[in-house]
Queue: 4 jobs
Job 1
Amino acid sequence: MKHNFELIIDSIPYLIVTGIPIRNSNNEIVDFEISFVNSAMKKITEDSVEAGMRISQLWKNSENSTGFLEKAKAVAEGTPLVDEHYFSKKHNLWFKIDMFYIQEEDFFVTTLTDITADKNFSKQLQTALMTDSLTGLYNRNGLFQYMEKVLNEDEKNQKCTGIAILDIDNLKNINDSLGEKEGDDLIVKIANILIGFKSENYKVFRYGGDEFIIIMSNLTDEDEVAYIIDDLYNLLQTNKVKLSGGIAVSPVHSCKKEELIRYADMALCYAKKNGKNNLTYFEKYLEKAFLRHLTLETKMHTALKESAFKQYYQPQFDVHTGKLRGFEALIRWNDSELGDIPPSVFIPIAEETGLIVSIGNWVLETALETIKDWQERFNFNGIMSINVSPLQLSQDNFIFELSSMIEKYGVNPALLEIEITEGVMISHMNETIDKLQAIKDMGIKVSLDDFGTGYSSLSYLQMLPLNTLKIDKSFINNITSSDGIQANITSSIINMVKNMGLETIAEGVEQPEQLALLQKFNCNIVQGYLRGKPMPLNLCEEYLSGNEKALLTINSL
C-alpha cells in the first residue's frame, strides 16, 4: 500500500525519481539507487524504470546520457544545477531538469518538467522577431545572425561573400500619390522577384521600409559576385522594377559585417545621387566622400548654432534703363578649417539632412531684417529675392512663419520675391500650388528659378501661380554662338513668357554681347557678373548710399 506522500507525488504531472547515494570505501558517491518513481515517469518510460535501478542505468540508453550522473554527483556535493534542459527525440519533448540533494536524509530527488510548449512559443516568438510580416523574409535581426555565420565560414574556407543593399526608387512618391497599399504591393512584388532569382548560396532579407539586403556566400572571387549582380540587374529591368543598389565584398573591402553594410550603403547613396536605377560597387573614394559629407554635416550644425553663415546679395538691373531692380539674397559659408564652402556643396547636404529648413529660415529672416534696415536708412524700395527649398516650402507652418516674420519686421510684402525651383512639384502638387497662391495673395512675388534645367518646365508654367521666370545661366552661356540656336530658343522663351504676363530675369550675364541680345529680345531684368557680383552687406550699403564704385563686377580688380 502506498504512503500518503507517494499518492500525492503520483498525482503530480512532473516526472519524479528519488534515489539514495551509493558510496565507495572512501565515502565518495559513485551512483544513486532509485528508491521511488512516480506514475508520470513510469508512463512515459513504459514501466522500464523501477525502484532498485541505478541512476546510471536510467540514462544509459538516452540520446543525451552524457553527464547526468556527473551532474547528480555535483549537486550532491553542493553545486546547484542551473537551467538544464533535455530533449527526448523518442517523445519529441523538451524537459527542464531539476536535481535536489537533501543532506540530512542523504536523499536525492530529480524532477523533469515538460517545457515543450514554452520552447515552441519561444521559437515562434523568435521567428516573429526575425521575420518581416509583409514579405515573409527575414528582417535585420535575422540578417545579422546569418551574416556572422556565413562570413566566418567563408573566411575559414577562403571564399568571398557579397552583400548588396537594394533600395526601391521613389517609393515615397508612390505611397503619397497612389496610397500605401500600392507601395506595399510593390514591396511584395520585388521580394518575390528577389526570392525567385537564385537559391544556392543566396539569401534575401528585408532591411527596412524600402530596402532589401542580399547575401551571396561561398563564392570563388569578386568576379562571381559581379556575374550574379549583372544577372539580377537584368532581371529587375525585365520586370520593369527600378531599384538602386550598393555592393560590397568580403574580404576585398572588409571582413566585418558592420563595415560591409556601411560600405554597401555608401555605394547605394552614390547610386541614388547619380540617376538612380543602377547598382554601384563600393570604392575607397566613396568612403572619403562619405567622411567629408559627415564632416560638413557636423560643421553645418555648429555653423547654424553659432551664426557662422553670412548673407551676400547679388544686384539685379533693368535691361533697358540700367536701374537697380533689387537683390537676391545668397547664403555663404566660410569655415575656419575648410575655408570657403560653395553653396553647391553644402546646400545638397542640408537638403538631405533636413537642415535646409533651419538654414532657409535663417536666410529668410536675415533678408527681411536687412531690407527693413535698408528701407529706414537708404529709402530702399527695390525687390529682395529669397530662395526657398522644396523641403522648407513643404513644412506645414511655412506660410504662418513667413507671415509672422513679415509682421515682425514690418516689411511691405510687395518688396519680397520668393524663388522656387521645379523641385517643389515632385510631390504634393496641389498642396504646393495652394501654398504658392497663398504667398502670391499676400502680395509677395513668386519666381521660378533655373528655368530650362528641368524636364517639364513648360507644363509647370501653366500650373504655378508665378510673377517672374528666371532663365538659367546654361541658356545665356551660348546665346551669342554663331549658329544662333541658343539665341532663338532664348528669344522664344522670353516672348512666350511675356505673353503669359510674366517678368523675365536672365541669370549669369557676363558679356556685353549677351546683354545686347537680351535687350533686343526684350528681357526685363539681368543678373550676373557683368553688372554685379554677389556682395557682402557692407559693400551693398556703400552702393545704396551712392558709391557706384562699391559695386563688384567682372571688371573689378
Job 2
Amino acid sequence: GRVYDKKGFFFSAIIAVSSLAIGYVLLFFLRDKLGVFIGSLLMMSGYLAGMAVFGAIIRDKIPEGKAGRFQGVRIVAQVLIPGVIGPYIGKTVLADAKMITNSDGTQSFIPNENIFLYALIVLLLLIPLLLILCRSIKPRLVELHTPYEQELDEQTVPHADYPRPQFKRDSYLCLNGWWDFSVFRRDREWLSTKILVPFAPQSRLSGVAMAIKRRDVLVYSRSFDLPDGFVKDRVILHFGAVDQYADVYVNDRHVVSHEDGYLPFSADITDVLMSGENTVKVIACDPLDADLPYGKQTDHRGGMWYTNVSGIWQTVWIESVPNAAITSLRMTPSLTGVDIVVEGGADDKKLLLTTENGVKEYNFTGSAISIQPDDAHLWTPEDPYLYRFSVCSGDDCVESYFALRTIAIDTVDGVDRILLNGKPRYFHGLLDQGYYSDGIFMPATARGYEDDILTMKSCGFDTLRKHIKLEPDLFYYYCDLHGMIVFQDMINNGKYHFLIDTALPTVWLRRGITHRANKRRRAAFLRNAEQMMNLLYNHPCVCYYTIFNEGWGQFDADECYRHLKSLDETRIFDTTSGWFKTELSDVESEHVYFKPVKMPSRCNGPLVLSEFGGYSCKLDGHAFNLDKTYGYRFFTDTDAFENALLELYRREVAPLIPQGLCASILTQVSDVEDETNGLLTYDRLVLKVDAERMRSLSDELQHYI
C-alpha cells in the first residue's frame, strides 16, 4: 500500500505480478518442501499484493456518485459467480477426478487436466469480451488552451517570423496560413477542408484535429503571387519539415521528393514559375516508417509515447537569390576569435562585424576568414553575448551572428570535468520534449519557445536536453540569445521493445544489448544525424549530442560515435544515454528513476545524470488526460511536489558533484499529454514550483563544483 501511494499503479503492479509469476515458475519446477514453501510464499504474496494494488486503483477510478452501482457489479463478479455458481462449475469439471482422504477424514479432489482445458475455454471466451470493453472505453481528454493562441486570429499568418536567423536575407515570402487540404483513404477522398499551415492535422490549431492513419494520403494546395521586384535570379521554395514522405509540385510540375520527418528541404522552382498566380501542391503520407527517425511519435499514444504528427509541421517559405549566391556559413569559435567559412558567392567578399565599439569591416578573398575581436566577449548562460555580422559577396548579402565559447573535457583536481570556456561548470538541466497542447509539435507562436526558455532560466536552470526531437531554427536562436545550453538528442528509428529497452534495464540488464539494423535504417539514422549536426553547427547553445537514448534503435554504437565525432570534434558526445554502454563515449551517462542516485563504481569520463526525477503533480483544470497519469512518484499539491524535488537535489544530487557529477537532467520542462511530471503544466499556464526557491537551489549546486 505504501509503495502504491508513493510510486503509483504501474511500478507497484510490476512488483506484484513479478512476484506472482516467479512463484508460479518455482512451483512448476520444484518438488521439495523448501522449494514449494518459497514458491507458495512468492505466489501468495504476489497475489495478495496484486489484489491490494488493483483494488486501490479501482477505488481511485470509481466515478463520483457511482460507488454503489460499482460495488453491486463487483459482488456479482467476486461473490455470486465464484461463491455460488462456481462450485457447480467445479463439480462438473472435476467429475472424473480422483479423490483422496485427508487426515481429518474428509475427501478432496485431485485436479486433473480438465481444469486446464476449461480454464482455456473461459479465457478464450473472455478475450473478445475484454477487447470489446477496452475499445468502448475512451479516456477523457481535455482541450488545453495556451496563452499563445490568443495571438492568432483569422488575419494572422502563424509563425511568420523569419525562420533562419543565422542565415538571413532580405528576401522572404511566407506561405503559412490557410491551405486547401484533402485526406485520401483507400484511394477515395475521405475529407476535403482547409488547414492552417504549419500546424499538423492532428493538432487543434490546424483546424482539422483528426487522427491520420498510416495509409492516408494528405494533399495540400494553395496559390501564391510573387511581389513586384521579388525575383532576382533564382527562386527557392523551402519547407521546414514534412512528416514523413513528401512530393512537391509547382504549377503541376514535380520539383522535389523528400523522406524524413524532421529535416528541412528546398527546391529551385525558377524554371516552373509563371507570371501572375502560381500554385504549390504537397502530397504527403506518414506510415510511421520505423526505418526513418520518428522520436516519440506513435499512432497509439499513452504514457511516455505521444500523439504523432503528419504532413507539414513547420514554416513553408520562398526566397530569391542571385545566381552566385552564398550557400552556407560555418563558424568555429575559440576563446579569442572565430574561423568562418563562406561557401558560394563571388570570390571577393566583405564582412561587417558589429561590436561594442562600432562596426568593423573585413575584406577577404576566397572562402575562409579568421576574426579576433578586441577584448573578446565570451558567451555564457549568465552573459550570452552574440556578435552580429553580415557578409556580402557580389549581389548577395546575408546576416548572421556568432559567439565565442568552447566546450571541452579535462581533469580538474583529479576529477574529470566538462569545461565551458576552459572552466568547470555544473550543467543544471531539464528534459525538454518540445510538445505543446495547442499545436503538438509547435506552439501557437514562437513566443512559446521563448517563454519556456525564459521560465526555466528564471528557475535557475541553464541547460535543456532536447529529447529526440529537432526543433525549428528559431528555438535554438532563442537559446543562443538568452543563454540556454542545449544537450541535443539524435532522433531514434527502429522498433522499440518494452521488455528489452525499458523493463530489464530498469531493474538489472544495462550492458551487452544492441539491435539489428538493416542497411536502409542505418543510412537513414546517420543521414538524419549528420544533417542535424550540420544545421546546428553554428549555434553556440548546442554543446552536447546524445546518439542513442536507452537503447532505442541502438546499433553499432562505437562505430556511430567514431563517425559522428569525426564530423564535429568541438562538442561532447554521449553515445548511450542511460544504459547498454559501449566502449566509446565522452561521458558516463546514467538514468535513475526508481532508486537513489549514486556514483557508479567505474566512470569512463565525466558523469552525467542524463535523466532522473520524473515526479508527478497533476493539477485540476490543467490535465490533458483525466483518467490516466504517468510519472514515477506522485504528489497532489505543488508544495509537496516542490519540497520533494528540493530534497532530491540536496540529499542525492549535490553530494555527488564534488565526486565528479558534471550535469543533471531533471524530467522535465512541462507536462506532456498523460505525463504530469513537468515543472510547467501542459497548457503553460501554471509553474508548479517557486522560481526563487529553485534559483537558490541552482546557486547552491554551482558552489559544489
Job 3
Amino acid sequence: MSFQSLNKLFLDRAEENLEKPFLWSKTDKEWKSLTWQETSKNVKAFSSGLKAHGIKPGDRVVIVSENRPEWIVADLAITMIGGITVPAYTTNTEDDHHYILEHSGAKAVITSNNILANRLALATTRTKYCKLLITIDNYNGFEPEGLNILSYNEINNFGKNTIENSTDHLDKIQPDDTSCIIYTSGTGGRPKGVMLTHKNIYSNLLGAADLIEIIGKDNNKYLSLIPLSHSYEHTAGLYLQVDLGSEIYFCEGPEKFSSNLLEISPTLTTAVPRIFEVIHDRIKIQMKSKNIIIKTIFNRSVKLGLKKIFSKLNIIETIEYYSYGTLIRNKINNQLGGKLRAFVSGGAALNPEIGNFFLALGIKILQGYGQTESSPLISANRPEKIRIDTVGPAVKGVEAKLGEDGELLVKGDCVMKGYWEDEKTTNETIKDGWLHTGDIATIADDGFITITGRKKELIVNSGGDNIAPTRPEASLTFQETIFQAMVEGDRRPYLVAIIVPEEEKTSKLNDTEIHDLISNEVKKANENLSSIEKIRKFIIIRDPFSTDNGLLTPTMKIRRHKIKELYGEELDDLYGSKAK
C-alpha cells in the first residue's frame, strides 16, 4: 500500500485495532484509556469543530500542552483538515509564545491548564493573527478583547454535529504537504521554524522499521516522557507508535518516571540522558546500603558485563556471568518494569560511561542521533550491535558523509522542506539536497558515526587545537557531586569550567568544603581527558541552569551564549590575577 498521509496511516491503524486500548493517562490515581475507535471518533469530531470555527487547509495551529491524549487528538485533527500543527513547549515564556504565534501566523492555539492559558492569552494581545484560544482544562483567567476562548469539549461537541464531513479533505492531502512546523530550541538565538512534511516523518518510520523488527514490533507498550513538542517524541513517540499499533502511556512527569515504569511495565520508552544519570545514581546509592557480599556480587557483575562488551569472557567468567550475574541483571530489569525490550536515549548525547553501565547490566540502550531538520532520525545503534560511544550507522533511507571541514552531511526523504519564512537560511542549510547538520563527526569504515562536537561550539584554544566541549562536560557531570557543567576556553591557553554542585550532596557543607570536594571531582574527571581537554580552573555557582532562568533549552541543552553573558567576567578572571 502506497503512503499518502499520516492521517490515513492513523485511520488505517484505528480500523485494524478498533476496541483495543490506545491512549492511557492517569486520573484520580487510576490509569484510564481511550480505545483506537474512541480516539478516531474524537479526532474526527475535533477536526470538524476546528473547521466550523474557521480553520482551513494551510492554517497554522499551535499546541501548548503537557503530553496527554488531547494533544494527540488535536495534532491529528489539525492535519486532517489540511492544517499545520505548530508544537510549542510548556516551558516557553510569554515572549517565546508571542514570537512563535507571530512568526508562524497561527490562527489558533490549543493549550491545557490555567497557567499556560493565561500566558498564551497575554501573548495573543501582541499578535495580528491568533484570535482563537482553546483550553483543554477549565479556564478562569485573562480574557483579552477580540480573543475567542472556547473549551476543548465545546469544539469537540460542536464538531459531532458535522462529523460526517470530517474527512472531506483527507484525499487531498499529499505526501509533500507540510504536516507540522517545529521550532528549534534556540541554543544560539531565536528559534527557526522547521517545516516537516507527511513524507518526511513517514521516512523516519521506514528508517526505524528494521530496528523495531529486531526489538519486537507486536504488543508494544510505550511510556511517553519527552515532550511531544520535541521532534523526536513527535515522530518516535507518536507516529511510530501509531504505525506499530502500540499502547501509549503518558508519564506523570520526570519525578514519577521510575514509579510509572513499575506500574506500566513498558516494552519501549525514551528518555533524555539526565534520566539515565538519575537512575544510575539511584542504583549506586542503593548498593551503598547493602552488605559487603551483595556489593561485591553487584560490582563483579558490572565488571563482567563490561568485559563481555569490550573483549571476551573466559570459562570461569562465563559461568559467573550466567549464574549470579543473571540474578543481578534480572533484579535491575524488574526495577524498570521487567518487560523493557529497549531504552532509547534521545535529546542530547549520553555519557558513554553511563551507557556502558546499563549495557553491562543487560539493559539495551539505543543511542541515536538526529535533528529537527531531519524529522529527526539520522542514525541509531542497532540492538544486536551497540557501540554506545557512537550514534550508530545511518538508518535505512539516509545517506551520510563528511564535508571537507568534518561536518556531517545527510541526504534522504527525511530532510525538511525548509525553514518557515526563511529561504536564505534554508539555502545555507540544504545544498544540493544535502543537509548541513552543523555537527562535527567521524564515520568509521563500518558506517558507525561518532559526533565529536558542534561546529559553532567548537573551542579553538590559543594553540590552535579544536576541542569539543561536550566531552569534558560529560566527564565532569559523571562525577557524583557535580550536577551541571559548562566549559570554556576559546582563544585561551586552557579550559575552565562553570560547575553547579549536586544540592543534596553539598547542602550541609561550607564554601571551602564544597570547593575542596569539587576540586577532587575535577581531578577525577581530568583522568579521562586528554591534556588539551583537562579543566585547569573553575568557578562554582549554586543556581542550576534551568529553563526558568533561560540557561537551558526546553530539551535540556545548555544555552552557552546566555551562560557566557551571565558569567563572562568571572570566567575571564580565571585567566587573570584574580583566579584562584
Job 4
Amino acid sequence: MSYSISKSIIGLLFTAATASLALSGCSNKSLKSLVPDKPSDAPDYMCTWNLQGYYVSYDMAQSGGDLTRNAMNEENLFGNGKYQNWAALYPKIHQDLFFVMDDSWDIPKDANSIHNNQHLGTVILDSERFPSFTGSPTERLKQLCQRFKEIGWKGVGGWICAQKAGRFENIEEKEYWIERLKMANEAGFSYWKVDWGHNDRNDQWRRMITDLGKEHAPDLWIEHAMKNEYITFSDVFRTYDVEDIIAQPVTIQRICNLLPFIADNGAKAIINCEDEPYIAVALGCAIGIMRHPFNGYLPNGKQDFVFPPVGRDYKNRLDEVVRSVRWHRIAQPFAVNADCLIDTLKLHDFWEVHEHETYVDRPIGSVVQESAPARVSRRMPLPEVADTTANRPYVLASCYPNGAVAVAAIGRTLGREYVSHRVPVTVSALKPSDPIGIFGSFKSVTIKYAVPFPANFRVIAQDLAGDKSVDITNKVTIQDNALTINGNIIDLVGLMSATPGDKSEAGMVMVIK
C-alpha cells in the first residue's frame, strides 16, 4: 500500500473562495465570529530555542562556547536583519501568547561555555545582551516586558536553569530565589520555564520554587519538567523535547503517562505538550510553540534537521498553531485529575531515517519506532472509530470544564510518510449550545448529545484561523439527538481562512444556536 499524502494535501488546500462557493447554499449574513475577541488566559507561549538554533545553523559549539546561547540578544529579538525580529512572529496571536526567551537571556554575552558555566541560573536580564534596557535589574526587566506588551504580546517569560548561579555562592538558596521572584513580580515578568541544572530532579527544590512563587510572584507561571510526579504541584508541566520525525506517538504517550495523576489542592497542574497544537487542544493541554516561519535550508546551506521538510513538515504548518491557540479563547486547558480513559490498543509508528532529519545521533537507514494508545479521552467516553484499519489515526477527545468538546484525528508516521487516513468518528457532548472543536482529517464526525436539539436551531461553524462564521445547517445530517458532519464540509469550513501553501489540516469550531 502506498502511503503517499501529496494528493490529500492538495485536496485540503481550498481557498476561501472555493469554500464559499461550496457553502453557497448556506446563509452567512451578519453572523458573529464564534471566536471571542478576548485573548486567552491559557499559559501558551512561543519559545525562542529553535530560532536561536536556526540563526546559527545549530552550530552548538565554537571555541568552547555555544553559538545557540550567543544568539539570544536584543538585536535578534527586535532587529530588522535576515532571520531577526523574532518579536514580530505570529502577529495574529500575540495577545494570546507569552514570548519566552530561552537559554541564555540572563548571562553575559561572552559567557556561553557549555560546561562549568558559573553564570547559569543568574535570572537577571543581562545588560550586555540587552543594552537598550537600563537601570536596576528590576527596571531593565520591566522595560523589556513593556516593550513586548507594546508590540502586542500577552507577556514575557524566560528559560530558568534549575540552579543558583555559581558566582552567587555566598547567597543563601531560599533568599536567592525569593529575590528573583520578587523581581519578576515587580517587573511584570510572566513565565519561568524551569529546565535542567543541578536541581533539575531535586524534588524538594522544585516544590520550593513553586511554593515561593505563589507567595512572592502570584501572577508568575512556573513550569517544571523532568519527573512526571512534578505535575501534581506544578503550574505547568512540560512533556519535553521530541524528534519531529516521530513526535506524535511520543507526545501522546507522554501525556498519557501524566493524565492519571491528581493535582494537589490549589495547583494549576496543566500539561504543556510543546509544539503539537492539535494534540494539545484535543487533550486539554497548553501549547509551547517551537516551529517558526524561517523556512528552507539553514543559513549554512544544509537541511534543517530539527524541522526537516519531510513527514509533517512543521514549518509549513503554521495555521494549525493559530487555530489551536485561538481555540483556547473558547476553552481553557485544565488540570490533571485522573479524569481520563486510555485505550488498551496501541498503534505503532516508525520512520526510516535519512540524512539531516533529526538532532539525535542515529545511523542513516535506521528505523525509529514508537507506539501510543489509539484513543484517549478526558472527562468523556472514548471516541468511537468505525474504521480500524492498520493506518487509522490516533483519535483524541476532551470535554472541557465549560462543556466545550474538542476532537482530533492525529495522523501517523509510517515509513517515510505522514499519513492522514480518514475515518468516521463519533463523540459525546452534553448540550447542543456547547462549542465543538474539530481538528484534523475525518471521513465524518458524529456528535451525540445528551439532550434534544432546540426548536428552530441553526448550525454555525467557523475556521478557527479566521473571523467569519457560516451557517451550515443544511450541510449536516440530524438523526434523533445526533448530528453528523461530513469530512469534506469539515475541510471546507476548517480551511476557509487557510494561508496559501500552508499544509495544516482543518481546525474548526461549531455551535448549534
